[in-house]
Structure formats: C-alpha cells, structure tokens
Amino acid sequence: MYGIDAYYVSAVDTFESVFGETISQIRAVTDKPVMINETGIGQLNSQVAAIPGLVEGALDYHLTALIYFNVNQGTSSPSHQNWALTPAGMRALRDSLASVRD
Predict the structure, then answer these.
(1) What pLDDT, on the 0 to 100 scale, is given for residue 12?
(2) How confident is the model at residue 102 (pLDDT cuts 50, 70, 90)?
(3) What is the DSSP letter of 78?
C-alpha cells in the first residue's frame, strides 16, 4: 500500500490540486492500494466547504483509507496551521460520510 500525506494549506486548495497528480503518478507505476495517511484542512481554507470534496475525492480515486490530522499546530506559517476539526467541520465530515453510506 502507498500512503500520501498532504494538506490544504491555502484557500484555493482542492482534492485534485492537493492529491491528484501524486495519485496519478503512483497509479502509473503500480496497482497497489493508495491511501491518504495524513491530511488536514487549515484555517486558510474553509473546512466546511472543503471536507465534502475531500471525501468525494477519496471515493472518486478509489482510495483505501483517509486519516485526518486533527491537531492544532498554531498559526506561525501555512505549514503549521490549526488543522483541528471545528464543530462545523466535524458535522461536515459526518454528513459527507453519511451520504456515502446512503
């Protein structure tokens, strides 16, 4: 299995812009499963707006798993943001996952 870790660090990041090229490169050389082993959506991107696309992207690309980095690393730089899920972000994640089951 191959794992990818990447983050939504800017306001314009989407599943495709964060993960698409890397997944395509992996799939060009192997048919082994791919997972996102660490990701987060920082305060520079709207969690509520981005989470459905994260879940949909994982499904569309047939990923094996997705692990969310639910930690506040502060706000000192784009790579050290508050990745922790807000209450609204958690609801967006639950709603996105519930729609997958339906």
Answers:
(1) 93
(2) low
(3) T
Ranges of beta strands (E only) in 1-102 are 2-5, 34-39, 66-68, 72-77, 80-82
What domain range is 89 assigned to? 2-101
Strands 34-39 and 80-82: unpaired
What is the model's pTM?
A: 0.91
**pLDDT tens sequence across 14-70:** 999 999 999 999 999 999 999 999 999 988 888 999 999 999 999 999 999 999 999
Checking DSSP bridges between strand 34-39 and strand 2-5, what pairing results, if any? parallel
The CATH number linked to 23 is 3.30.750
Number of domains in the chain: 1
